């Protein structure tokens, strides 16, 4: 897990804290340019939240995440996927799950 990254970036730590509280995730990953160390001054945080199987529609899960981040004053894109959906696409090399496992940073694991 990337504890040092969370200590260096208090905004990221606050994002993770809020998402844990709102979504009760199994895991949270940082991916994209910030995870690869290629972020520019206008780069946002790309976050993948993995939740247990949920009967809620995907738009509702994402809504919980975005509401939790209201007022954070930083650009964040959040994807909220169930563990089953994430695992089902993991073998596809060009999928989000595969890319996240290769390039992402694990920020939280329950």
TrEMBL record:
Question: What InterPro entries does this protein's entry cite?
Answer: NT_sf, Polymerase_NTP_transf_dom, Type_VII_TA_antitoxin
Query: Which top-level group of life is the source organism from?
Result: Bacteria
Chain ranges of the Polymerase nucleotidyl transferase domain: 12-95
Single GO MF annotation? nucleotidyltransferase activity
| Pfam families, per the entry | NTP_transf_2
> By what name is this protein known?
DNA polymerase, beta domain protein region
List the source organism.
Answer: Methylomirabilis oxygeniifera
